[in-house]
Amino acid sequence: MASNARSEQRDISLEGRQKHLLIVEDSRLVGKILKHLASSMLPDYTVHYATTYKEGCELFEQHQHNIFAAIIDLNLPDAPNGEMAGYLLSNELPIIVLTGNYSDESRERLLLLGVVDYVTKESQYSYEHAIGLVRRLEKNQSIKIVVAEDSQAQQMFITSLLEQHLYQVITANNGAEALAIIEQDPSINLLITDYNMPQMDGFELTKALRRKFNKSELIIIGLSGVEQKTLSARFIKNGANDFLCKPFIQEEFHCRVTHNIEAQEQLNRIREWAYHDALTNLYNRRYLFDKGLELHKNARKNGEALSIAVIDIDHFKQINDTYGHDVGDKVLIAISSLLTSSLGDYPIIRMGGEEFCIVMPNKCNQDAYDIIDQFRDNLAGKTIVADPRITITISAGVASALQQSLDDQINAADKLLYQAKEDGRNRTVKET
Ligand SMILES: Nc1nc2c(ncn2[C@@H]2O[C@H](COP(=O)(O)OP(=O)(O)OP(=O)(O)O)[C@@H](O)[C@H]2O)c(=O)[nH]1
């Protein structure tokens, strides 16, 4: 097992840097298109623009500690043979090269040099692709990829391709090693695995991992040789997301890796939306009955404490009736942000209307009561919305008896909340 030294070095060196992009392009028109696209697609970046090799070098020297990547024209008036690319690559800067005309030789030369990608100046899409790659590189720095491959030459080749795109790479010499690495680090996003390996082959590894991680949690790309065509289908049937036949060309490799990572990101984004309440951005009921259920099951299985608190704003209808629904919404947003800043260690769910639920693993009834009642006490009398000035109080119920289902425990907390309302509001009621 060997984590990649160059990636680690780059990660550290980029930490705290501002986002600066260097563009070196002598055509005013192309430069204008790139600057325009950068301002809309990378609004958080400062763009330095040069039209010659000399200017490009000067700008790089001035801002090199902040420059993250460069998009450069291969042939500049004062550097017709790709000298700009050579200079920036010797300074370990990721570069995307623009070229006026494609040829197999120049493609080969550029990829050998170690550029991130080359883009032919053909259409608006080419320029969008170049700018989009900068954002991709930025995200790649936090993506961890395990390469399981017993051939040292193949392992080094795949690692170098991934490094060029700034991924964090961890290598394994066989399936058993890869399995141990991934089991220890659930933040690993992707595994690229060969089939033929000592100790544990690619299929066994894929099968073992699929018992623990589904396809959106861990992407698996299998590698198979041309002489073993059926391996690819078998990889998929054993749970791999995708496969690649060796030998592959670099573009094909990057396309497959990027495509799978972007699909995973898209899925995670959709899942995030599906789990969040649109007004307050707190979790919603769907989250409660997926993740909350898991927490509840685990607590029961391990004999650990888990408390459920249900909180409700007192006389919220009066706020709506007096000031209107918009002000009511402001109050809901304000209390959600207070809940997050005070109780953000626990999942906070908007159950609907002005009712919130907090799942508190490892908290017994008294501990959970103390935390929730402290929050209630701090809130009472505090101005929650400044204009018009609004103060609120809340009532809460805290249930911790785990013999019930999650649903039953929420109902029990709801009953205690009802009692708090009955007893005069602005109070917390726990189990007796
Ligand atoms: N502004 C706003 N109001 C909402 C929203 N969802 C529900 N409500 C309102 O919340 C109010 C809830 O009122 P009630 O259930 O009568 O409760 P309450 O006035 O808080 O009284 P108690 O809970 O008994 O103290 C109703 O007026 C709903 O229309 C929302 O998303 N935004």
Rg for CA atoms? 28 Å
Number of strands: 18
Number of helices: 16
- Helical fraction equals 40-55%
**Unreliable stretches covering 5 or more consecutive residues:** 1-13
Q: How would you describe the shape?
A: flat
Number of domains: 3
Strand content: 15-25%
Q: Just give the CATH class of the largest domain.
A: Alpha Beta
Strand order of the largest sheet: 1-8-7-9-10-11
CATH topology of the largest domain: Alpha-Beta Plaits
Structural class by secondary-structure content: alpha/beta
CATH superfamily label of the largest domain: Reverse transcriptase/Diguanylate cyclase domain
Small-molecule components bound: guanosine-5'-triphosphate
Name the average pLDDT.
92
EC number: 2.7.7.65
Domain Response regulatory: 20-136, 144-261
Catalytic activity: 2 GTP = 3',3'-c-di-GMP + 2 diphosphate
GO molecular function: diguanylate cyclase activity
How would you describe this protein?
Residues 304-432 form the GGDEF domain. Helices cover 49% and strands 21% of the residues. By secondary structure, it is α/β, with parallel strands linked by helices. It folds into three domains: 2-139, 3-Layer(aba) Sandwich (Rossmann fold), CATH 3.40.50.2300; 142-274, Rossmann fold (3-Layer(aba) Sandwich); 285-430, 2-Layer Sandwich (Alpha-Beta Plaits), CATH 3.30.70.270. Helix 3 packs parallel to helix 4 (83-90) and helix 8 (175-184) runs parallel beside helix 9 (202-210). The chain is flat, with a radius of gyration of 28 Å. The two termini are 55 Å apart. The model is unreliable at 1-13 (pLDDT under 50). The protein binds guanosine-5'-triphosphate.
